[in-house]
Amino acid sequence: MTHSEFRYAHHPEDVKKYSTQELREHFLIPELFRKDEINLTYSMYDRFIAGGAFPVSKPVKLETIDDLKSENFLDRRELGIINVGATGKVTVDGESYELKHKEALYVGRGNKEVIFEKSGDGQPYFYLNSAPAHHAYPTKKVGKEDAEVVELGDSKYANKRVLNKLIVNSIVETCQLQMGMTELVEGNIWNTMPPHTHERRMEVYFYFDLEEGQTISHYMGQPDETRHIFMKNHQAVISPEWSIHAGAGTSNYTFIWGMAGENLDYGDMDKVSVNELK
């Protein structure tokens, strides 16, 4: 079964007036993994879809949703998958790909059938991002050894981290979807410092590897009008193109960033000095 919900886009002047609960209702994705289901959130920010596939007792198939008005989910879309659990299997139009922990798979436009399943005793958690596509690029698996790895930050500022570029244009051809994974080094809590916006692209953050009982405060909003959303493990948050996207946890964690929009230039950022935030 494929379940979905729809989210509208928002003007930043309106968001300034939102209560805590309204912020959470519009931007937080609180539950991605439901037993034996695929759970999706369709956002009007660049028509981006984020969700999770969770095959516990049986395989689950990616079905089209009403909002797409298409016979198959990928008729006009591309799909990025990162497994954040135990080893699992993804079958795309009859061809199977084994995804280990923190491995990725890009699935191009035009594929008809995508099936997720377990491949052992462990439980896979398949995190999904999808964006509209104008061209059909080949399906390609991206292991951690294939990633572009960049070390960032400094323990002095509690933001030492390892960035793994997985589904990016230098590794796999895509139309507009870009995905990667950033791992905070133990003892570090801050991600994406200095914060930034990029009006050419929107973004979704998915947080995992967070210790039980800990939390992450995700910061959003315009640089001079910031807001925060407290988040738990296995939750995601939508970041509009006008919003910063940064966070701090009460312990270290890992997060997946997924982007879509005007260009594929990872370095296209409008950075904001930390002492200029309000």
UniProtKB/TrEMBL annotation:
Provide the GO MF annotations for this entry.
4-deoxy-L-threo-5-hexosulose-uronate ketol-isomerase activity; zinc ion binding
Q: Which family does it belong to?
A: Belongs to the KduI family.
What InterPro entries does the entry give? KduI, KduI/IolB_isomerase, KduI_N, RmlC-like_jellyroll, RmlC_Cupin_sf
Q: Which UniProt keywords apply?
A: Isomerase, Metal-binding, Zinc
Pfam families documented for this protein: KduI
Q: Which gene encodes it?
A: kduI
Per the record, the GO terms for biological process are: D-galacturonate catabolic process; D-glucuronate catabolic process; pectin catabolic process
The cofactor binding remark recorded in the entry reads:
Binds 1 zinc ion per subunit.
**Chain positions recorded as Zn(2+) binding sites:** H196, H198, E203, H245
Reported EC number(s) for this entry are 5.3.1.17
Q: In which pathway does it act?
A: Glycan metabolism; pectin degradation; 2-dehydro-3-deoxy-D-gluconate from pectin: step 4/5
Which NCBIfam families does the record cross-reference, listed alphabetically? PRK00924.1 (NF002091)
What is the protein named? 4-deoxy-L-threo-5-hexosulose-uronate ketol-isomerase
Question: What does this gene product do?
Answer: Catalyzes the isomerization of 5-dehydro-4-deoxy-D-glucuronate to 3-deoxy-D-glycero-2,5-hexodiulosonate.
Quote the CDD domains the UniProt record gives.
cupin_KduI_C (cd20491), cupin_KduI_N (cd20294)
Q: Which reaction does it catalyse?
A: 5-dehydro-4-deoxy-D-glucuronate = 3-deoxy-D-glycero-2,5-hexodiulosonate
Q: Which cofactor does it need?
A: Zn(2+)
